[in-house]
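Standup notes
- DV: blocked on the single-chain target, sequence here:
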Amino acid sequence: MRATTATAANSGRHKRPRERQQMDLFDSARPEACGAPLWPELPEQARSALTELMARLILAHAATAVPLPAKEAGDDL
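- DV (later): unblocked, structure below
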């Protein structure tokens, strides 16, 4: 009985800090949850700028990515 009491008493000490949840940017059911406007509500200039920035980010990442090693034809088995 004593071990159970000690375990219950110590359980509060080792709790992990509550992790922050990442907002779901693609949840169309609750767009108001994050406070950001919907894509069609953005001015054309903002949509164009964001599209350009995202393309540049993806291309920059692809340029620095390490290519996977080539597989030999005999490795398919």
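- Follow-up: The chain has a mean pLDDT of 74.
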